[in-house]
């Protein structure tokens, strides 16, 4: 290929720069070199000097003089007397002087001439060549400061990049001979917090690193220098450096990339620390950088079409097979893991995690939710990996540990989980079991590979062998618990208890011949003497595994002991979730093996247990099995008793719990009433109310119309056809409770249909009964909201009694929205909701107030003397903001209900309610002000009614300024808008609204004129009205200092150390 001269190279670069700059702010080093025409891999072009001037220096000076580059450039030109430098000899003679002056101007803070001065520096370097060697390190120091610490001015960054790239090219031979010193000088760039600076430094030094004849030695030096000051940014910079050593541009790789990659990996895996005590820490530091390097390589290869893009997989796999020690094996397994795992944050360093998080947030904020093609692992060295794994297991000091467990399990699940490789998976697992005696890590490995298709057939014998060895040493309790837990997890995964009980069948899924010893040990441990010493978790795991260790043909041993365990747990006063799950596990085990034994459990004990457990999910599932064993009941008294017992479960936010209740109640065979219509035709429903509700809960949420179809069958009056004869009032209450519990379903199209059906009960049902249900439901929701932050007890069984994460706040808000549709009914029961409204108001005041509770003076001195104070747990701003938003919406919804009442003065706790309305008029939140004004207007004051439209327009920010003249209070021009006889009623309302508007302080356009308009309106107040406003506006300050406080009192209070902990400073900013 014909070589381009330097002028053509730079002309080509500047032409491409104009186009590239439109799309990208910063060019990388490789992109700059590519634009200049150089080869990124070797970059061995020679610079030929052809120009109209004798020197590049003079050419650069003349070119930059024609542009406006600020006074620093002119000062530089005057200082060096550029007219006297026309020849190369003159330039060479004065080179030291020119360089010193140039450095002086380049280091001036906030200089506008940086692009020109960098261009002149690069021209000087091109002219002086070898003679510039003595200035090289100083130049690098200046450019490093510009790139790392300089202002983020695009032109300055571009100029520094270009100058640096030319300097590296011109001084390449000089720098390559002193790579260690070069890296030390560039170290600040590798540790820069600016991503593009680290990337540029890595690409620049990688170009020099490729020229090294001893890459392994230099790589080791880089690690030792970096380890002296370890930092996330520095680690990322080193990973980028090694990555750029073997990659090219446009998806290509260096022609010698395979050897370069191998040398880097070998150097870092075998690198030794200078401090023996920190050798392990240093090794881990090196491997983490290699992992990140591999991560960058994978991302690059994913977008490449190069035939050799997977060379790194081949190198790593080969090196794994060649490993001689376990330390090497673990290191290479850690490097290979990113090749077989698509996404794993644990494999990223902190810098990459932050990048990914920021990208995710940006996409979310921009509304990007594009569908991506399903990614899959591309691993091309499967056969080689088999051999390497076999060789790795043969290493003399082979022993399983966490990294090897993670890699082997991922490999078996991702690469070898198919029909062709089943036998290999079995063989390698058995070899590992034979090789290592660390049973804890073996169990962890088996647990992670539990989803292998061939696990039950090929891996279970290994588990049985391990279990047999473990039970020989019963003193190791941790291993015993781990192996029992493994059996429990395996059985729960393969045969989920809930589904197995529903099928009422038991079929084994693995060969039992290797597990007889463990089975016998398990049965013996159910004896009273042993089980009383075991924890709930341990017992539950044992009971879950027990039925599956016997075939259908075997006589199941231990049933009597399990029955005793069940009776002890069911009769216990312990109401914990773990006790409930133990009862469920024992009941399920006996139900599958010998259900007749369950009849020995008294009904009374089962019912007391259910009541004690407050109808938890596990207790309901156990109760269902007992109901099935006891047989179908046709006694209405028994049904009414069970309805009373199960009613609390209908208030649950868990749809599965409500569904289970209706399934239990559907088992009763009771007659339904016969209905005679007007034409004397007799009809009788075939399904009871419980079956209808079961079908409603069982319907898919996406098909919400089907659910509403079932619920509409139970409108008031129509519901009587479905209620069994002799049923108690509690059955009707169950219908209402289930309707209200639909608000837990997070699907808004369903709610309006529920409003419709629920309204029929609100209007026609006995009001006391109806509100009894609502009161129970509201109390349940409030309890869950108030206890939401507390840690709940965790169960042992997967998928049962899970932590409740329902949106109780939203469910309560939907109930308030429904109440808005039935104000006549709600108005008759304000005794129930008025306390709730005031509680929500207090919560609102707590979240929006500027003052926290004060500390008594007597306690203040004690607190100041204490050196050690417990840290107070404060809510993060984001959580508090979210909580405030929720309370605002809830308060607005409930106020909207009160605004529709016809007799506002007759509501329960009316004086406190009215005072709350008045306080909320001064809120800074527009929706709260609107709702509070509507409530005030519900008093039907004839004077306020005349101002209603203007008051509502005053609250709306869009019409605030246009409405202010409608409330002119001064009569200076004879155009007062509020009549004297109306002022006593209207002005207090007006001032409260305006005080709330003054609390809004943002930087939107027009805020000053808005504030001036409000103050002008307030300025028309009379003296008593103005006093009222000032007391209102400075209410928060009065709470801190008192209304009668003198300046001395205020100064004394402010001087105390605890003052800032008592008061939020924002109260003074407002």
Number of E strands = 2
Distance between the termini: 73 Å
Discrete helix count? 56
Give the integer mean of the pLDDT values: 83
Which structural category do the helix and sheet elements fall into?
Answer: mainly alpha
| Widest β-sheet, arrangement of strands | 1-2
How many strands, what sense, and barrel or not for the largest sheet?
Answer: 2 strands, antiparallel
Tertiary shape: flat
Q: Number of domains in the coordinates?
A: 6
Keywords: Coiled coil
InterPro entries: ARM-type_fold (IPR016024), SSU_processome_comp_20 (IPR052575), UTP20_N (IPR011430)
Protein name: U3 small nucleolar RNA-associated protein 20 N-terminal domain-containing protein
Organism: Caenorhabditis nigoni
Tell me briefly what this model is.
This protein has 1070 residues and is mainly alpha-helical. The protein is 64% helix and 0% strand. It has six domains: 26-177, no CATH class; 210-308, no CATH class; 317-347 and 379-473; 515-611 and 618-631; 655-675 and 683-787 and 794-821, no CATH class; 842-849 and 881-1043, no CATH class.
Commentary on this structure:
The protein is mainly α and 1070 residues long. It folds into six domains: 26-177, no CATH class; 210-308, no CATH class; 317-347 and 379-473; 515-611 and 618-631; 655-675 and 683-787 and 794-821, no CATH class; 842-849 and 881-1043, no CATH class. Helix content is 64%, strand content 0%. The chain has a two-stranded antiparallel sheet with strand order 1-2. Helix 13 crosses helix 15 (257-269) and helix 41 (808-819) packs parallel to helix 45. The protein starts with 5 loop residues before the first helix and ends with a helix. The relative contact order is 0.03. Residues 888-1044 form the U3 small nucleolar RNA-associated protein 20 N-terminal domain.
């Amino acid at each position: 290929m014909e070589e381009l001269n330097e002028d053509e190279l730079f002309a080509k670069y500047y032409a491409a720069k104009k186009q590239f700059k439109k799309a990208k702010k910063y060019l990388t080093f490789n992109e700059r070199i590519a634009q200049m025409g150089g080869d990124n891999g070797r970059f061995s072009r020679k610079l030929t000097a052809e120009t109209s001037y004798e020197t590049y220096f003079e050419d650069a000076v003349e070119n930059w003089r024609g542009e406006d580059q600020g006074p620093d450039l002119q000062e530089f030109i005057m200082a060096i007397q550029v007219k006297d430098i026309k020849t190369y000899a003159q330039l060479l003679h004065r080179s030291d002087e020119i360089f010193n002056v140039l450095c002086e101007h380049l280091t001036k803070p906030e200089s506008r001439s940086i692009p020109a001065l960098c261009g002149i520096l690069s021209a000087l370097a091109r002219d002086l060549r070898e003679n510039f060697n003595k200035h090289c390190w100083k130049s690098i120091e200046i450019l490093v400061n510009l790139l790392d610490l300089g202002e983020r001015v695009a032109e300055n960054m571009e100029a520094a990049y270009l100058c640096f790239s030319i300097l590296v090219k011109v001084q390449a031979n000089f720098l390559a001979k002193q790579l260690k010193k070069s890296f030390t000088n560039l170290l600040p760039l590798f540790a820069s917090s600016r991503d593009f600076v680290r990337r540029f430094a890595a690409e620049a030094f990688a170009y020099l690193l490729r020229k090294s004849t001893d890459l392994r030695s230099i790589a080791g030096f880089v690690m030792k220098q970096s380890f002296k000051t370890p930092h996330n940014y520095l680690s990322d910079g080193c990973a980028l450096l090694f990555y750029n050593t073997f990659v090219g541009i446009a998806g290509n790789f260096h022609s010698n990339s395979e050897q370069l990659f191998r040398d880097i990996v070998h150097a870092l895996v075998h690198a030794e620390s200078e401090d023996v005590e920190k050798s392990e820490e240093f090794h881990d530091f090196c491997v983490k950088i290699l992992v990140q390097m591999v991560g960058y390589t994978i991302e690059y290869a994913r977008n490449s079409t190069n035939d050799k893009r997977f060379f790194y997989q081949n190198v790593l796999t080969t090196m794994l097979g060649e490993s001689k020690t376990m330390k090497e094996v673990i290191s290479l397994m850690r490097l290979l893991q990113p090749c077989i795992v698509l996404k794993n944050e644990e494999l990223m360093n902190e810098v990459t995690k932050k990048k990914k998080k920021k990208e995710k947030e940006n996409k979310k904020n921009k509304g990007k939710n594009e569908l991506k093609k399903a990614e899959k692992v591309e691993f091309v060295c499967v056969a080689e990996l088999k051999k390497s794994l076999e060789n790795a297991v043969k290493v003399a000091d082979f022993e399983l540990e966490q990294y090897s467990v993670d890699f082997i399990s991922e490999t078996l699940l991702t690469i070898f989980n198919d029909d062709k490789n089943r036998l290999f998976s079995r063989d390698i697992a058995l070899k590992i079991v034979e090789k290592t005696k660390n049973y804890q890590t073996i169990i962890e490995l088996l647990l992670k590979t539990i989803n292998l298709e061939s696990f039950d057939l090929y891996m279970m014998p290994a588990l049985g062998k391990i279990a047999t060895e473990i039970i020989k040493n019963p003193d190791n309790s941790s291993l015993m618990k781990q192996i029992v837990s493994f059996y429990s997890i395996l059985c729960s995964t393969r045969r989920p208890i809930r589904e197995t009980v529903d099928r009422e069948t038991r079929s084994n899924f693995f060969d039992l011949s290797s597990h007889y010893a463990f089975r016998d040990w398990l049965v013996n441990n159910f004896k009273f003497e042993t089980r009383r010493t075991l924890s709930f978790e341990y017992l539950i795991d044992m009971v879950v595994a027990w039925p599956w260790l016997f075939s259908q043909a075997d006589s199941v041993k231990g049933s009597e002991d399990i029955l005793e365990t069940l009776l002890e747990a069911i009769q216990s006063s312990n109401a914990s979730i773990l006790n409930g799950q133990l009862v469920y596990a024992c009941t399920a085990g006996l139900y599958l093996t010998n259900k007749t034994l369950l009849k020995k459990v008294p009904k009374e004990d089962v019912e007391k247990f259910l009541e004690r457990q407050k109808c938890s999910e596990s207790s309901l599932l156990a109760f269902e099995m007992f109901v099935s064993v006891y047989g179908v009941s046709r006694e209405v008294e028994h049904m009414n008793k069970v309805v009373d017992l199960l009613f609390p479960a209908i208030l649950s936010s868990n749809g599965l719990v409500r569904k289970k209740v209706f399934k239990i109640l559907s088992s009763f065979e009771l007659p339904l009433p016969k209905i005679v219509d007007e034409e004397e035709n007799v009809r009788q429903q075939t399904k009871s109310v419980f079956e209808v509700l079961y079908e409603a809960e069982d319907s898919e949420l996406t098909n919400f119309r089907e659910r509403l179809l079932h619920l509409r069958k139970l409108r008031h009056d129509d519901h009587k056809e479905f209620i069994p004869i002799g049923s108690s009032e509690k059955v009707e209450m169950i219908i209402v409770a289930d309707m209200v519990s639909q608000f837990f379903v997070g699907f808004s199209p369903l709610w309006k249909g529920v409003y419709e059906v629920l309204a029929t009960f609100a209007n026609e049902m006995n009001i006391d009964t109806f509100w009894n249900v609502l009161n129970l439901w509201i109390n349940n929701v409030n309890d869950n909201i108030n206890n939401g932050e507390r840690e709940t007890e965790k169960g042992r069984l997967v998928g049962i009694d899970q932590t409740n994460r329902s949106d109780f706040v939203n469910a309560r808000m939907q109930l308030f929205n429904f109440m808005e549709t039935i104000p006549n009914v709600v108005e008759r029961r304000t005794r129930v909701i008025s306390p709730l409204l005031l509680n929500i108001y207090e919560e609102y005041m707590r979240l929006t107030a500027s003052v926290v509770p004060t500390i008594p003076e007597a306690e203040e001195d004690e607190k100041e003397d204490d050196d050690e104070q417990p840290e107070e747990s404060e809510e993060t701003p984001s959580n508090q903001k979210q909580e405030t938003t929720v309370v605002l919406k809830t308060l607005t919804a409930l106020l909207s209900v009160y605004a529709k009442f016809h007799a506002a003065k007759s509501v329960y706790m009316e004086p406190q309610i009215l005072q709350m309305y008045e306080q909320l008029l001064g809120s800074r939140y527009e929706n709260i002000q609107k709702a509070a004004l509507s409530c005030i207007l519900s008093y039907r004051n004839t004077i306020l009614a005349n101002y209603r439209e203007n008051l509502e327009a005053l609250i709306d920010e869009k019409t605030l300024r246009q409405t202010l003249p409608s409330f002119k209070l001064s009569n200076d021009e004879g155009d007062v808008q509020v009549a004297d006889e109306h002022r006593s009623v209207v002005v207090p309302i007006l001032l409260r609204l305006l005080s709330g508007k003054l609390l809004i302080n943002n930087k939107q356009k027009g805020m000053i004129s808005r504030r001036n308009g409000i103050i002008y309106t307030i300025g028309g107040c009379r003296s008593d009205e103005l006093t009222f406003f000032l007391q209102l506006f400075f209410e928060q300050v009065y709470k801190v200092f008192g209304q009668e406080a003198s300046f001395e009192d205020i100064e004394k209070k402010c001087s105390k150390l605890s003052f800032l902990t008592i008061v939020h400073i924002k109260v003074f900013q407002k």
